[in-house]
């Protein structure tokens, strides 16, 4: 069905469309019959791409503020709404022509007629301004002439569009206003426009009525806006000598570049036009005025901004004049359903970039459909409680998602979801064929292929492959994220771990790790990924040799998920980039808080904190930070502010202070050699740390230290295991005490071991050392720390702590479970994410506020731009 047929059907119960009256950059106008009131009306329908930016909910809400404007020279608003993705508003149908039609025919108007039209439009503007409404788009096209009387059309529509876009339109170049009539502040994307912007536009319109052309002209939109910002218009009486001095002076004052130098009200402008005594505003010579303006504003900055805004602006509002297509635009999301900004990539884009499906940040965490071409937006019933990822099938007909621990599939058009398989928190969920999906578990210890039609699956156990990307040969998987912020490649047939190498290094040098997360292969020879700083970067890559070239920043400020490193960005098969802006979720501060208090930073340092431990005396904290080249273990003196780097390496595990505080212990891992070690040394780094234990395979982390000389921790091999290390032996003695266990920790009296079952995520406690019974504390995944011998504090995704009370003599020792503390800004760091002090303080990393995204940014043809930029950087 064609677009016009869809529109006719969508409005059939209210309006019968008769014919198209005209089309502009913002809307198409139809003559229609109002079926309820039996009258002719003009129905303006926003262009689909503009409707995509706005969204119906906010547009309809904002346009209500203009419906009460009642003035003889303002065309009233009859109706507005949304129908099948179309945004529209309805006005009276006025027989006559626009001022643009009249100017096209006559070029210049009689001076008296031009002043009369301007005076009556100024009266309408003055009324609206007194009611706190600014038009923002005064131009000849919006002035209807009915029996010689001007009527201002689209009054407040520009305001509603701008407000509905939440101030984002100028950020992408979607500025409102025709370039010839824009005020300098509007041309340079000032967000808070005043009534004096409308006065400038009205002065520009008068200038054209008197001289036959706007104050500033040029071959391109960029040239026009550049002149608006930097050049002075010639006085009107130089171009038309019969213009009286007071009209020339009033026009010049209305066109002053600084808003403060213009008329403060539209009524004063009108009064000056009709007052022959008004000559005080006659300009000084142009050079003097230009010098004054340039001294008061930073012209180069304005010029650069102007070029950017004008370029994309003309694509939208100059489309009917043959301008270029828009390069970048935003799509608004409903206020009731913004995008969830946590952990994984919570959206998916169709192959043709026509729509997006995303996880809403509401209490239901439901999936929503949002068109990228028009205003269509809808919830997808049956998709509540979605966990982190969603994926769209290659034919754009089905979606795969996880809810309630189950992988589910359903048609995009709607229907009952089909349960496919049990899944534990997937990352990197993608379709790799019409029937098969591919992903890793959140812990990165298994990669899974599942046929969604048959349920047949295969699993590859591995070493921490988070957010996997299957390479074209089908036999290698690219990994990076979570605890390992660098690229690695798993060769499936040999189960070997490979590392991309920097081809710029001399032969024989050790390969430099490609730092980052969420790696994706594009067109077989480019990688995109999220840097540890939170930028989307690109690099040339050869899958056959695993060599990479020079990396460059492509898009700064993409939201990066805490822990996983996943970017809130997706790339369609046709090369469109869709992303959400936001702060780097991994950058935060270490804070201390009591249960009833407010978080207090331990220091003023903000960094990409990975793991940490507070010294027994509370005066120092050992922290592991993700650096640009390596991980670094720092020791901060909280009293003096002194900071020293204690250790560097590709991977540094959980730091652990000895009970006396005179030694610091930590596990390390060398991924190329696949060797781990436990090292210890004085915290002041007065001597190099000693290696106490080392071995092949995966990492052993220390989590809890006890006065009896035993440390408890984890290995991260498959299966994961809780371990104990006897620190009194030389070399150290390592024993497995519980299989399939994460985040093992002993109670202070060593009677209980708490851990999370790695396969199911359940939190359990077990008598130690017998471990002959297990008692479930919670069925939700999380980490545990002992507050006392009978109180276990657990963090559960994503922001809440619970306290379990233990009664050792009861048949079931877990006697109660209650919410203990909540912080919406709690950050899930790789490894143990919090610790407790003897004085019952909670220590954790507080991340930036997790504000849901109210809009998404779209860059068509982005892949081609990315390839050109990467190729240029590698010449």
Describe this structure in words.
The radius of gyration is 33 Å and the shape is elongated. Strands 33, 34, 35, 36, 37, 38, 56 and 57 form an eight-stranded antiparallel beta sheet that branches. Strands 1-2-3-5-4 form a five-stranded antiparallel beta sheet. A five-stranded mixed beta sheet has the order 26-30-29-28-27, with helices on one face. Strand 10 (347-349) and strand 11 (355-359) form a beta hairpin. With 875 residues, the chain is α+β, with helices and mostly antiparallel strands. 49% of the residues are buried. The chain is built from 15 helices and 58 strands.
Write the topology of this structure.
Blueprint: H1 3-10, E1 15-23, E2 27-34, E3 39-46, H2 48-54, H3 56-63, E4 79-83, E5 86-92, E6 97-98, H4 99-106, H5 111-130, E7 143-146, E8 149-152, H6 157-164, H7 184-187, H8 195-211, H9 221-230, H10 236-239, H11 245-254, H12 266-273, H13 286-296, H14 299-317, E9 329-332, E10 347-349, E11 355-359, E12 367-371, E13 377-379, E14 386-392, E15 398-403, E16 406-411, E17 418-422, E18 426-431, E19 436-441, E20 446-451, E21 457-461, E22 469-470, E23 476-481, E24 484-491, E25 496-498, E26 501-502, E27 517-522, E28 526-530, E29 536-542, E30 547-555, E31 569-571, E32 577-579, E33 587-593, E34 600-601, E35 607-614, E36 620-626, E37 631-637, E38 643-649, E39 651-652, E40 656-657, E41 664-670, E42 675-681, E43 690-696, E44 700-705, E45 710-715, E46 721-726, E47 733-739, E48 741-746, E49 752-757, E50 763-767, E51 775-778, E52 782-788, E53 791-796, E54 800-806, E55 814-822, E56 834-836, E57 842-846, E58 855-859, H15 862-873
Parallel strand pairs: 26-30
Antiparallel strand pairs: 1-2, 2-3, 3-5, 4-5, 6-7, 7-8, 9-58, 10-11, 11-12, 12-13, 14-15, 15-16, 16-17, 18-19, 19-20, 20-21, 22-23, 23-24, 24-25, 27-28, 28-29, 29-30, 31-32, 32-58, 33-34, 33-35, 33-57, 35-36, 36-37, 37-38, 39-41, 40-41, 41-42, 42-43, 44-45, 45-46, 46-47, 48-49, 49-50, 50-51, ...
């Amino acid at each position: 069905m064609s677009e016009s047929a869809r529109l006719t059907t969508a409005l059939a119960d209210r309006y019968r469309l008769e014919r198209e009256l005209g089309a502009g950059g913002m809307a198409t106008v139809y003559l229609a019959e109002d079926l309820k009131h039996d009258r002719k009306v003009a129905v303006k329908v926003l262009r689909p791409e503009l409707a995509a930016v706005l969204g119906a909910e906010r547009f309809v809400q904002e346009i209500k503020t203009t419906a009460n404007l009642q003035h003889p020279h303002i065309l009233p608003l009859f109706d507005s709404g949304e129908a099948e993705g179309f945004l529209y508003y309805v006005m009276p149908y006025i027989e006559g022509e626009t001022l643009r039609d009249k100017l096209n025919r006559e070029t210049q108007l009689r001076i008296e007629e031009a002043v009369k039209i301007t005076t009556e439009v100024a009266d309408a503007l003055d009324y609206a301004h007194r009611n706190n409404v600014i038009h923002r788009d005064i131009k000849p096209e919006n002035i209807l002439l009915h029996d010689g009387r001007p009527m201002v059309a689209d009054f407040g529509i520009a305001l509603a569009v701008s407000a509905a876009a939440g101030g984002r339109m100028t950020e992408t170049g979607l500025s409102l206003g025709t370039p010839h009539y824009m005020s300098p502040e509007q041309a340079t994307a000032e967000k808070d426009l005043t009534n004096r912007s409308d006065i400038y536009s009205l002065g520009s319109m008068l200038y054209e009525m008197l001289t036959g052309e706007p104050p500033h002209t040029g071959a391109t939109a960029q040239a026009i806006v550049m002149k608006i910002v930097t050049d002075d218009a010639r006085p009107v009486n130089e171009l038309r000598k019969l213009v009286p001095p007071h009209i020339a002076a009033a026009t010049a004052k209305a066109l002053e570049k600084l808003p403060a130098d213009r008329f403060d009200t539209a009524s004063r402008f009108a009064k000056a036009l009709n007052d022959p005594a008004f000559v005080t505003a006659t300009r000084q010579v142009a050079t003097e005025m230009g010098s004054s303006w340039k001294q008061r504003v930073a012209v180069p900055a304005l010029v650069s901004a102007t070029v950017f805004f004008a370029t994309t602006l003309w694509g939208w509002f100059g489309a009917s004049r043959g301008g270029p297509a828009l390069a970048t635009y935003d799509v608004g999301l409903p206020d009731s359903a913004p995008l969830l900004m946590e952990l994984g990539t919570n959206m998916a884009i169709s192959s043709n970039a026509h729509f997006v499906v995303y996880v809403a940040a509401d209490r239901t965490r439901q999936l929503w459909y949002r068109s990228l071409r028009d205003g269509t937006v809808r919830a997808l019933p049956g998709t509540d409680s979605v966990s982190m990822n969603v994926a769209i099938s290659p034919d754009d007909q089905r979606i795969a998602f996880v809810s309630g621990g189950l992988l589910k599939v359903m048609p995009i058009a709607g229907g009952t979801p089909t349960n496919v398989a049990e899944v534990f928190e997937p990352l990197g969920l993608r379709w790799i064929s019409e029937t098969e999906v591919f992903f890793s578990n959140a812990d990165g210890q298994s990669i899974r292929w599942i046929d969604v039609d048959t349920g047949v699956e295969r699993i590859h156990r591995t070493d921490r492959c988070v957010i996997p990307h299957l390479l074209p040969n089908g036999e290698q998987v690219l990994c990076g994220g979570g605890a390992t912020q660098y690229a690695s490649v798993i060769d499936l047939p040999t189960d070997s771990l490979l590392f991309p190498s920097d081809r710029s290094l001399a032969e024989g040098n050790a390969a430099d790790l490609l730092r980052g997360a969420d790696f994706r292969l594009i067109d077989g020879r480019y990688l995109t990924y999220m840097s540890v700083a939170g930028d989307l970067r690109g690099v040339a890559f050869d899958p056959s040799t695993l060599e990479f070239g020079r990396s460059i920043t492509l898009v700064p400020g993409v939201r990066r998920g805490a822990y996983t490193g996943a970017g809130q960005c997706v790339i369609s098969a046709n090369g469109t980039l869709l992303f959400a802006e936001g702060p780097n979720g991994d950058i935060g501060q270490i804070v201390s808080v009591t249960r009833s208090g407010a978080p207090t930073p331990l220091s003023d340092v903000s960094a990409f904190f990975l793991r940490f431990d507070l010294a027994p005396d509370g005066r120092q904290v050992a922290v592991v930070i993700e650096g640009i080249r390596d991980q670094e273990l720092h020791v901060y003196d909280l009293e003096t502010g002194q900071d020293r780097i204690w250790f560097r390496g590709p991977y540094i595990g959980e730091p652990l202070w000895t009970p006396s505080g005179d030694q610091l212990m930590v596990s390390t891992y060398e991924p190329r050699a696949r060797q781990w070690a436990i090292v210890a040394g004085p915290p002041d780094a007065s001597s190099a740390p000693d290696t106490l234990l080392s071995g092949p395979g995966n990492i052993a982390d220390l989590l809890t230290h006890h006065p009896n000389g035993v440390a408890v921790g984890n290995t991260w091999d498959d299966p994961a295991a809780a371990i104990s290390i006897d620190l009194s032996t030389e070399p150290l003695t390592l024993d497995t005490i519980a299989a399939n266990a994460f985040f093992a920790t002993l109670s202070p009296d060593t009677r209980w071991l708490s851990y999370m079952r790695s396969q199911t995520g359940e939190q359990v406690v077990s008598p130690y050392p017998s471990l002959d019974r297990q008692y479930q504390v919670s069925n939700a995944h999380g980490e545990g720390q002992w507050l006392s011998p009978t109180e276990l504090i657990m963090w559960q995704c994503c922001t809440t702590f619970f306290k379990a009370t233990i009664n050792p003599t009861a048949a079931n020792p877990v006697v109660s479970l209650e919410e203990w503390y909540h912080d919406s800004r709690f950050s899930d760091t790789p490894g143990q994410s919090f610790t407790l002090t003897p004085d019952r303080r909670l220590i954790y990393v507080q991340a930036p506020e997790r504000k849901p995204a109210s809009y998404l940014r779209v860059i068509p043809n982005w892949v081609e731009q990315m390839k050109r930029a990467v190729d240029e950087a590698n010449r």
